[in-house]
Amino acid sequence: MNTFLSRFLIIIVLFFVKTNGFSQNDVRAYSTLEKHQRITIQEDYSYLVDIRQNTLITDTKGLDHGSYSINIDQFTKIENFEARIIDPKSGKTIRRIRTKDLSDRAVIGEGSFFEDSRVKYLMLENIPVPLRVEVAVTLKKSGNFNLPKWYPNSYYHQKVSASTLEVFYPESMGLRYKENLLSGISTPGESTGWQKLRWEAGDLPVIEKSDEDMDLPYVALAPVKFAMEGYEATMDSWESFGSWFNLLNAGRDELPDEMKNQVRILTDGVTDDFEKISILYKYLQKNYRYVSIQMGIGGWRSMKAADVAALKYGDCKGLSMLMKSLLKEAGIPSDYTLVYAGDDEDPIDVGFPSNQFNHVILRVPLPGDTLWLECTSNTLPAGYLGSFTKDRPVLVINENGGLIARTPSYSDSKFNKRKVSLQVDLMENGDAKIKGVSSYQGQPAEIFGPLTYQLSEKEQKDFLNTHLGGRGLNLQSFHISVGQERNIPTAEVSYEGLVARFSQNTAKRIMIPLSWNKSPIEEMNNESWEYEETLEINTDQPLVFDGDQPSWSVETPHYRHSLETVQEAKKLVIYKKINTYLPSYDSGVSNGEILLGMQKEFQKQLIFKK
Amino acid sequence: MKRTLIFTFLVGILLEVRPVYAQEMKFGKYSPWEFELTDVPFEPGSDAVVLEEINTSFFSGVQLHSEIHRRIKVLKESGKSHGDVHLAYYDGKEGIETIQRLRAQIVNRENGIDKVTKLSKSDFFEVDAGNGHKEIRFTFPEVKEGSILEYAYTKLDKAILFVDGWVFQNNIPTIKSSYSLAVPEFLDYRMLGQGFKVVTAKYRIGSSGLYRWNLTDLRSVKAEPYMNHFSDYLEKVQFQLAGYKSQSTNILGQTESDYKNMFSNWQELADFFMERRAFASYTKPDKNVSKSFPVIDTTGKNKSEILQEYYSYVTQNFTYDGKGSIVPDQSLKDMLVNKKGNRAEINLSLMALLNASGIVAHPVMISSKGNGRSDLVAFPFADQFNHLMLVVNTEDKLHFVDACNPDRPLGYLPLDFHVNEGFLLMEKESGLMPVKIGHRSGINQFVEIKSTPNNGFISTVNLRLMDYDALVYGDITQKDALESFKNSILITPDVEVIKFEPSIKTISNRHVLETSIETREKYGEGENVFIKPFAISRWTENPFTADARTFPVDFNYTVNDRYSANIIVPEGYELDDYPENISLTIPDGTLSFSYQTVAMNNNVQVNALLSVKDNFVIAENYPNLKYFMEILTSKLQEPLILQKITINAVAEEVKP
């Protein structure tokens, strides 16, 4: 067998063994891609990315497959760009595009005010298909902090006939990688002291949008030795990766004298560390605002605390740095901490030290307790993280470098409490006057901080009309008070109003929902919950149950709930209690299914004879 | 909107007409009341307020200069975010708009002393937003409760055919907003105002070309449910050039004056669009291009059928690129090759094909809902349109056609195209025409409920969604659309679905999504059985929860729903109780609802009718609408109650 064929077979076998995440399908391909990418890492920490790709577009719907974009920032330079649009039938070049012909626009991430990133792009529009787009691009990156992740696939509805990645690097610099559904081949490079890595994939199944959750092949790269703008470190452990941030941020926590005095004024006479933290955190929240301006290495390095103090604004790095400095001045050490934030984001890959973060928070280790501070929030209590960063691995930067820790999950019931007391004066036509107090603790209370901070009174009222009770609520007056119990957010809402059709009336009966108040069961997404409700219904005439007066107490391994009804002359009082002990989110068990039985019980109606 | 640079040919005009007013807000000079203000009387609880904003616009040569000055006060901590400012402008490729002389400062009064911080050039960031659009962004330092933020700049605009004018409202309340435009003697403009305060103000100053508005106490604008966009209701003013004078010197050295009308009638405006080369390629196709038209066999077909053929051809073979447009960029020749284009290009391609087949079709420009002006003004104001569709005359009927969505059958338009009028473009007699879109949307639901052995019920439902109510669900032959439709229909828990068979039909030229549903559920062994006649309804919960409303409610289309249920009372049971009959309407008569139960022998018939006769409900009627919806949604949830017949009861019944 000739050597070419034997090599080809090995690659094919490897690929099909490794790509068992795919199922063969018959998704229509709009284009076919052949792509070869080469990354060459230099000893001065710069690296070159060479890409050569041919895209044959056979369907108008795949015209954007021939488009190309390059993200440019202070560390990225286009060494060469050339694209040719070719008529595949005649082989004639229809259009030739060079760097100067590319369109250009700013790229500013969501929530960011300004960034110096740009995108240069080629957009194909109104060109008849079939056509072939040949692209050759060379980019020079001046630092190797970020190495690109490689996916053989580029678009939905695209067939990949061949895609390769080759990485050349000096052995002395080192390189790490993580493969998914692919296996690379490592060989010595052509020059002494150089190493070469190669991955190859071909004839991949065509995927469509509904396959977006499919496990796709990729290769993630990360350096061992790295540097940006002269700041050098290694990335082969979280410890050494973290020390780079120490290097980058050295001396940036210095406070001006005026701020040092401010810390003294605020904390003089306060002995308890938590109280000091709380005072300084509230000072930060009241006087500073989040503004994200990212330029150059400022994308990773914090603003100086003194600059944030002067401007009264900063991004997550700057505000965290200022808070760290304030705490330091108050004699409380804290750690700058990197996190991948987001409500439903996948956790970082703890086994692959690399740049996987998009946000900074602060860790405050106290004797017997560890507090976490979200310094961009104007409303959270000191020591409480919202859902944006809770319950995930983070990289704590301390004097020894980096250290993986985990943020709290707030699964204890003290973080998940709600208590409702409601008085209802029911009228003959089913409408009702209501008066109630709802108190919230922990996660259910989180929403009320931003609500009272950001919304006008009318908007708050509209929110409560929708979210406080069930149908038909029209609030006449309300009061929201937001507080905290140590680091746990609390809120209390007292209100009065009218409810249209609180009860449903048939010719002979009155039906009252057992859970007019918004069911807490839908919110019970954490392991432990406590819910209590007292509902007092006053009527002109005594209510007579149609059937037995309901009452129950149910206990299962995952929850306990009870209902008690007490009837007096013209008053009916309903007591409800729910406690849950659910499996953790990581267990894979569906809490929704566990709670379904209980939910049905509380969706019932109380039936009375007229 | 991409704007066109014109009038570089105006000669000899270097005059500058600039209005000067007394008591103008001066940069950096503050009044005591501005520091004292802590709340906005007409919108309490606001986190920030525009204290005053002024736009003084005048012409210098053939450039429009707009000197804009805005002053904002932060009233609450949450108002600090107003310290981030974005100034957008359209640069194009030729510097059509530019921003100059930007100044910004913040003042904080601390212990009676004003601390002023000025921003420097390095604080202003230029952002290229792509496609010629740019922004200048800056953020104020030291923003806190009580801060007064102020900035001023000059915006130069070379495109003077359409003057953007001024929007007097902001996303925070505005205490005072002033706009003036000084039009020189050699230019004439038509004014287009919107909003009660704008149109009722005395805005013409004498007989000169000076317009000025000083509006006060303007509420903030925020989106509300069941509306397309609040921009349709903003207080704003725009201008369009109506004519201009020019001077030139003839060969004898004499000065000659000329006056040219611009868009003095609808035909001139139509000609302005239709004389563009790309546009003309569709209205008067080149013979060689016509030869490349697709060949569709129309033998024996009437004009409506031919229209259907071409509509199907275009929707199936041409791809809409998502860009709404009133003019084509590419020619018909290119469109026939590329088969992808903007809305104007696709619809004009269809027009060219129809015209070639002897069917009369014309372009119609509209201002879709949410474009800032869904009611057109009665004079030829070009800047009010944002989409181009067709009107096609098949002799038996006028059809309004948009061929941009293959899932939308002929005869239907996007919901935001349901406007009152459009601008018909023809070679002669162009003008406004009413847009009438015939449909009878609604939900028809026929339910039969009967018992099964083992204490169960089987419900057989024939559900017909008609016209726009059917189109909402898209192409249900696609997996995702079918799943979404099924989930929205089958919402009752504890019900076993035996049959769910949807099909798309055309019944009397109407698009119908008909579904046969069969479900089974247990009713237990208690004394009473509760039956909800209708598992499906247009609204299961009241969609209106806010207690007040600023803008009208727009349902987008009228509907008539008919729900009918026949319940066969199982043996051993009798009808004991049922929802009370009701008939209600809101005072302006736009919505009505009735619910009636009739029991005969062992049959119970329940009928409900819902009618939305007008898609608009004015804000003043909102409380009635909200209460109407509460009763409607509650009533449709009320059950019938069947009671087990006891032996004693039976014995009593048979007593003589």
Radius of gyration of chain A: 31 Å
| Mean of residue pLDDT values of chain A | 90
| CATH-scheme architecture of the largest domain in chain A | Sandwich
Oligomeric state of shown chains:
heterodimer
Mind telling me the C-alpha Rg of chain B? 32 Å
Low-pLDDT segments of chain B:
1-15, 649-656
Report the portion of residues of chain A in β strands. 35-45%
CATH architectural category of the largest domain in chain B? Sandwich
Please identify the top-level CATH class of the largest domain in chain B. Mainly Beta
What does this structure look like?
The complex is a heterodimer of chains A (610) and B (656). Helices cover 17% and strands 40% of the residues of chain A. Chain A is built from 9 helices and 36 strands. Chain A has an 8-stranded mixed β-sheet with strand order 5-4-9-2-1-10-13-12. The longest helix of chain A has 16 residues, at 3-18. The model of chain A is unreliable at 1-24 (pLDDT under 50). The longest helix of chain B has 15 residues, at 303-317. Chains A and B meet through strand 6, helix 8, strand 27 and strand 29 of A and strand 7, helix 7, strand 18 and helix 11 of B.
Task: Briefly summarize what is shown.
The complex is a heterodimer of chains A (about 600) and B (about 650). Chain A is of the alpha+beta class. Helices cover about 15% and strands about 40% of the residues of chain A.
List the helices and strands and how they pair.
The complex is a heterodimer of chains A (610) and B (656).
Chain A: H1 3-18, E1 31-41, E2 47-57, E3 68-72, E4 76-86, E5 93-98, E6 103-106, E7 114-115, E8 118-122, E9 131-141, E10 158-170, E11 175-180, E12 185-188, E13 194-204, E14 218-223, E15 225-228, E16 231-234, H2 238-248, H3 257-267, H4 273-287, E17 289-290, E18 293-294, H5 305-311, E19 313-314, H6 316-329, E20 335-339, E21 359-366, E22 369-373, E23 393-398, E24 401-406, E25 416-426, E26 432-442, H7 448-454, H8 457-467, E27 473-485, E28 488-499, E29 504-505, E30 509-513, E31 528-538, E32 544-545, E33 552-555, E34 559-567, E35 571-581, H9 591-602, E36 605-609
Parallel strand pairs in A: 1-10, 7-18, 17-19, 25-31
Antiparallel strand pairs in A: 1-2, 2-9, 3-8, 4-5, 4-9, 6-8, 10-13, 11-14, 12-13, 15-16, 20-21, 20-23, 21-22, 23-24, 25-26, 26-28, 27-28, 29-30, 30-36, 31-35, 32-36, 33-34, 34-35
Helix pairs in contact in A: 4-6, 5-6
Chain B: E1 16-17, H1 32-36, E2 48-60, E3 63-74, E4 84-90, E5 97-110, E6 113-118, E7 125-130, E8 133-139, E9 148-157, E10 162-167, E11 174-182, E12 187-194, H2 196-200, E13 204-205, E14 210-218, E15 236-249, E16 255-261, H3 266-274, H4 277-283, H5 287-291, H6 303-317, E17 319-320, H7 332-338, E18 340-341, H8 343-356, E19 360-366, E20 387-393, E21 398-401, E22 421-424, E23 431-434, E24 442-452, E25 456-466, H9 468-471, H10 479-489, E26 496-507, E27 510-522, E28 528-531, E29 553-554, E30 559-568, E31 573-577, E32 582-585, E33 591-600, E34 603-612, E35 616-617, H11 622-635, E36 640-644, H12 647-654
Parallel strand pairs in B: 2-11, 17-18, 24-30
Antiparallel strand pairs in B: 1-2, 2-3, 3-9, 4-8, 5-6, 5-9, 7-8, 10-15, 11-14, 12-15, 13-14, 15-16, 19-20, 19-22, 20-21, 22-23, 24-25, 25-27, 26-27, 28-36, 29-35, 30-34, 31-36, 32-33, 33-34
